[in-house]
């Protein structure tokens, strides 16, 4: 092919933004296989200058089986092999050694396969953080630890010798932490605590086969008290409550007919009782009160007439008013 024609084809493909070069798509980049809590996920980046409408197909393999089909014709940039239908494919096992590959497709064009790194599940998986709950009992705190949920198997089945590292401190003194290591029980009681103090706790899981410890749990805080609550008190209260509930149920079942007749009686009242209750009262006082009329009010009108005589001389105003008040005539007229 002449050099001029090759240069024209390359220039045309670059201007059009296509990933097709000599009839082959560019391959995905940064292909990597990861595992978190025993899942198996293949991720990648699209080809450089990828056209829209690209789809991808993935496969996975082990040292003992050939490549098996994973996700087919997907547009996302990841594939979780542990979520595939295992009835048609071999199941992912917790001690397997896996690697994957992916290729891009656009119409009838396909890129070359790109392989990922290799992962050994029990050694390379990232263990998530445990869930921690605290229960205060007097001057002690009980720590309850729940393992993270695995996509394949369980933590205790995969790591039979897993241990917990517990770190705790007073809420106001983070720099003075205390540690308890290599604990295999998922319930631990902290009894070297001060009363009426808030403590914060964080837990991490260690295993023998996985060199990396788990992610740290969230920080959980709880306060101690001074007096230890007797556990038998709660047991007695619960027993009494349950006994009362059972007794009420038994009484309701045995005497259900009597209770029903008492609440919803079926017998009607005698007719003379109904007539007596519905009859108007014949009391004399009641009849007088019913037929009585409001009493007629009697009142008298009065008129006040002021005297208009003037005050002579240089008599002060207050004196004049006093004299006037003494000389005023009040006429009462009855009507």
UniProtKB/TrEMBL annotation:
<dbReference type="InterPro" id="IPR003961">
    <property type="entry name" value="FN3_dom"/>
</dbReference>
<feature type="domain" description="Fibronectin type-III">
    <location>
        <begin position="126"/>
        <end position="228"/>
    </location>
</feature>
<dbReference type="Pfam" id="PF01108">
    <property type="entry name" value="Tissue_fac"/>
</dbReference>
<keyword id="KW-0732">Signal</keyword>
<feature type="signal peptide">
    <location>
        <begin position="1"/>
        <end position="18"/>
    </location>
</feature>
<dbReference type="InterPro" id="IPR013783">
    <property type="entry name" value="Ig-like_fold"/>
</dbReference>
<dbReference type="Pfam" id="PF09294">
    <property type="entry name" value="Interfer-bind"/>
</dbReference>
<keyword id="KW-1133">Transmembrane helix</keyword>
<keyword id="KW-0675">Receptor</keyword>
<keyword id="KW-0472">Membrane</keyword>
<dbReference type="GO" id="GO:0005886">
    <property type="term" value="C:plasma membrane"/>
</dbReference>
<dbReference type="InterPro" id="IPR015373">
    <property type="entry name" value="Interferon/interleukin_rcp_dom"/>
</dbReference>
<keyword id="KW-0812">Transmembrane</keyword>
<feature type="transmembrane region" description="Helical">
    <location>
        <begin position="232"/>
        <end position="255"/>
    </location>
</feature>
<dbReference type="InterPro" id="IPR036116">
    <property type="entry name" value="FN3_sf"/>
</dbReference>
<dbReference type="InterPro" id="IPR050650">
    <property type="entry name" value="Type-II_Cytokine-TF_Rcpt"/>
</dbReference>
<dbReference type="GO" id="GO:0004896">
    <property type="term" value="F:cytokine receptor activity"/>
</dbReference>
<protein>
    <submittedName>
        <fullName>Interleukin-10 receptor subunit beta</fullName>
    </submittedName>
</protein>
């Amino acid at each position: 092919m002449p050099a001029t024609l090759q240069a024209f084809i390359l220039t045309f493909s670059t201007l059009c933004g296509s990933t097709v070069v000599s009839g082959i798509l560019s391959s995905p980049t940064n292909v990597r296989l990861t595992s978190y809590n025993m899942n198996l996920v293949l991720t990648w980046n699209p080809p450089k200058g990828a056209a829209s409408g690209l789809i991808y197909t993935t496969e996975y393999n082990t040292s003992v089986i050939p490549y098996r089909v994973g996700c087919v014709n997907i547009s996302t940039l990841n594939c979780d092999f542990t979520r595939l239908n295992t009835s048609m494919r071999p199941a992912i096992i917790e001690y397997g050694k896996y690697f994957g590959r992916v290729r891009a497709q656009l119409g009838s064009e396909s890129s070359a396969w790109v392989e990922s790194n290799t992962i050994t599940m029990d050694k390379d998986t990232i263990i998530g953080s445990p869930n921690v709950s605290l229960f205060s009992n007097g001057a002690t705190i009980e720590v309850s630890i729940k393992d993270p949920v695995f996509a394949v198997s369980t933590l205790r089945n995969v790591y039979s010798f897993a241990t917990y590292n517990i770190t705790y401190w007073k809420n106001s003194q983070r720099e003075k932490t205390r540690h308890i290591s290599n604990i295999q029980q998922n319930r631990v009681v902290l009894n070297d605590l001060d009363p009426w103090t808030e403590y914060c706790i964080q837990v991490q899981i260690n295993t023998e086969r996985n060199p990396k410890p788990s992610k740290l749990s969230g920080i959980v805080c709880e306060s101690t008290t001074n007096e230890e609550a007797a556990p038998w008190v709660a047991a007695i209260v619960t027993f009494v409550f349950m006994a009362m509930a059972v007794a009420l149920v038994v009484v309701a079942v045995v005497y259900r007919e009597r209770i029903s007749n008492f609440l919803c009686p079926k017998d009607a009242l005698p007719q003379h009782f109904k007539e007596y209750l519905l009859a108007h009262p014949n009391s004399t006082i009641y009849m007088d009160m019913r037929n009585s009329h409001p009493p007629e009010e009697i009142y008298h009108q009065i008129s006040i007439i002021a005297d208009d005589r003037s005050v002579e001389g240089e008599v002060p105003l207050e004196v004049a008013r006093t004299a006037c008040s003494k000389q005023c005539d009040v006429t009462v007229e009855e009507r």
